Automatic annotation (TrEMBL):
Belongs to the gamma-glutamylcyclotransferase family. It is an enzyme of class 4 (lyase). It comes from Pterocles gutturalis. Its EC number is 4.3.2.8. This is Gamma-glutamylaminecyclotransferase. The active site is at 82 (proton acceptor). One of its GO terms (molecular function) is gamma-glutamylaminecyclotransferase activity. GO terms for cellular component: cytosol. GO terms for biological process: modified amino acid catabolic process.
Amino acid sequence: MARVFVYGTLKKGQPNYKHMINTAKGLAKFQGRGRTAEKYPLVIAGKYNIPYMLNIPGTGHQVAGEIYSVDDQMLQFLDEFEGCPEMYQRTLMRIEVVEWEGKGGVGEARAAAEGVVECFVYSTMTYPPEWVGLPYHDSYDSSGKHGLSYVLRESR
């Protein structure tokens, strides 16, 4: 099992969460809520209002999201879904645990108790330079006050 941190449309209550609970795509077990240990710019960009975490450590905000434990099948699905490695790149990042529900081995319990876990995160290093000038968010909600509604793939 691998640990994945999601900060956008794959979170509970967001437009693509359905994929996280579709066992035909693999297993994803909710472990808890967290935020990036470092600051990153989280922007909403493109004509479909997609949330992107730009891989510029030290800029922006600590980004809030959810921590999941996923099997290899779900990880492969997420790589395809996220357009990895062209659109997003899957990298390991340190995530501060805000709330932990995960049940696992001693190592997992220790990591949660220490308050930081390593997770795969889909961020991007391949973005137009003007995205750096977009507003930075510390969390994402597709129907947030930013007014930039996410456009589902099936509606594009």
